[in-house]
User: What shape does this take?
Amino acid sequence: MIVNTELEQKGNLFPSEIINYKKEVDTLHFSTKNGVALQVTVVRDSVIRFRYSTTGKFENDFSYGITIHASRGYSFLDVTENATHYILTTSKLICKIEKLSAQVSLFDAIDLKLINEDEIGFHWEESYEFGGDIVKMSKACQKAESFYGLGDKPVDVNLKGKRFENWATDSYAFGKDTDPIYKAIPFYTAIQENKAYGIFFDNTFKSHFDFAHERRNVTSFWAQGGEMNYYFIYGPEMEDVVKNYTDLTGKPHTLPPLWALGFHQCKWSYYPESNVKEITKTFRDLKIPCDAIYLDIDYMDGFRCFTWDKKHFPDPKRMVKELEDDGFKTVVIIDPGIKIDLEYSVFKEALDKDYFCKRADGPYMKGKVWPGECYFPDYTKPEVREWWSGLFKELIEDIGVKGVWNDMNEPAVMDVPNKSFPDDVRHDYDGNPCSHRKAHNIYGTQMARATYHGLKKYAYPKRPFVITRSAYSGAQRYTSTWMGDNVATWEHLAVANNQAQRMAMSGFSFAGSDIGGFAGQPQGELFARWIQLGVFHAFCRVHSSGDHGNQEPWVFGEEITDIVRKFVELRYQLLPYLYTAFWEYINEGTPILKSLVLYDQKDTATHYRSDEFIYGKQILICPILEPNAKGRRMYIPRGAWYNFWTNELVTGGKELWVDANIDSMPIFIKEGAIIPKYPVQQYIGEKKFDEITLDVYYKEGKEASKLYDDAHDGYDYKKGRFSLRTFKLTGKKEELIIQQHKRGDFNADYSKFRMVFHNLPFQITTIQIDNVAVQLEDLNTAETQDITIGKEFTELHLFGK
Ligand code: MIG
Assistant: This one.
């Protein structure tokens, strides 16, 4: 007879002593007396993976987060043991595993100092309700340790003292500190004693991170199921941690077409066609550059994906073509919910092929979204993704749409308490069947991935462009992203700044917020300040909900329109600089935005800075975040910087007041930088030009700058049709030398560089190009000290007095 029906509370369980050890190539296998198995794999000299099983048996080793292109291999690996520990050594790290407890500690292999150690280390609780375990890890937190990353969290840059949840959630009008919101990116970087390391907890279940919030000297992370499976990534530079994480989870598979880095205008919703045309025409009339116009859900027939409302858009192909002729690319929204309607071919086909998600006991997962009751494709099934990608044929190949915007893919469901699918919904998870508890956080990424493949196929030979709202680690391989439904407030302007920086340090640089705010309506001043920040985000789009009025650049009066134009023009001028930063991102994983801590971690004054950031490698930006400002105090990182507007040279390592009226903002250029600029264009490809500008900022000393270029679309760049120019500047008291080195065989239309010298401390008297003296007149040297020369020079040498 069973008398006790109370659930037995076992509480936390821990590994006991290690009784078995074996080494297999790059992996050490340990087992403990109580049946815990630990696998320690050396991925690279600075990257070690830890994987624990409480049953002695591991799950199928499958991850959506890790890319197959991740670099692997180490230069050195040695394993020894003493009475108390197993000791694994690579060229970068020493990892000690305690025999009695399986606790781990990690040391720098060069100076032997401790980087990170387990507090309790791995432990778990059994989950009666779902089976499996709640897996947990706790680590000692050092005194001055600080924490960064975690994707879209709308909080200040440093995460210390806070606790977070990762569970993709539709969060209309979220606020500062709302958690969680749309994305789940379980990766952070920590800095202690000047050294940075990162932890990527590759587990798609709902997870939590605690950065010395509950206990001052402990950081911990845990998940509602799955394995304790994390990657320890050592720097010691934060930038290297981020690069290694990005290498593991993937860089974008292709460069975006250059137009995707232009300015984009969006609203919920522009319709009918005449309204769309009125908007695009006003951009051209007012000469505000713009490359893309978005159609939100109202372009569809009753919110049915892949259909058009024929009343509002009688001939989409003609409209898209006309927009394109005027330099506008059309981007359309596509949601995951498919309307239950047997007359609707997309629904019918998916039903016949059994592609929709099902509840545990067999019925389809039914949920209400914009079209009414819907079923939802299971994007975690390869066959479904293949089918989904095929649906884009007409939209892309025939109608000529250039980009697709995936929304509501957390997935969001209306009128239910948890705003999403119930936990019991089943998913294929690429042949590893599971419940929604495991697939929820990855659902949006798999939708964006399937969308990306559709665009890739049908936009060929052009490059695909996708944007997504929800994402898990690795989504950056397929798509750009925006931060969801923010609000038109000053506080949200600061949030947008922090989110974009945080996304960049979380491997996801192609990101931006709805400029001006989605909910509510900004005053003109806020809109102008937001544009000023937004033009320095890789994804730059104005978007708003129509309920709150218009939000085009011209609705706030002439003064604001002029400011918007000025800054959007600046973005278009700096496109070659941004494109170069993007190239460095997809090649090396270098984040396009660098928070000051990432730029100079050795300067501890940067550890708690949130507002200032480096755009690319050589431009320092600090948005104005308050109304009625005439300027602000900001921190200038170490080194010397030119004020972009005045050319005044300031020395960093301190706070400074910087003037910035409404038509200005703090922008600084690193001393010695060579910044490439295009002429202003109303859209990419509007003009053919014979020269581009190089702004040369004098420095006594050396600085290197880069300029990447290619055809701005298509895939030829992958076959060597690109050009990568490196400029090495050496400045002396009365001389300036610029050496150019070029790689790749792309030949741009322009043949000349107009070089503008800022703050040369001397008057140019003699000029040599490739060791041959040239006449000043030939180079049309003017008062402003600028010269125009053929782009293929090897060495430019200025002498002066
Ligand atoms: O429930 O498609 O975040 O950008 O305009 C709202 C309408 C659905 C939410 C997105 C927003 C978009 C809106 N969508």
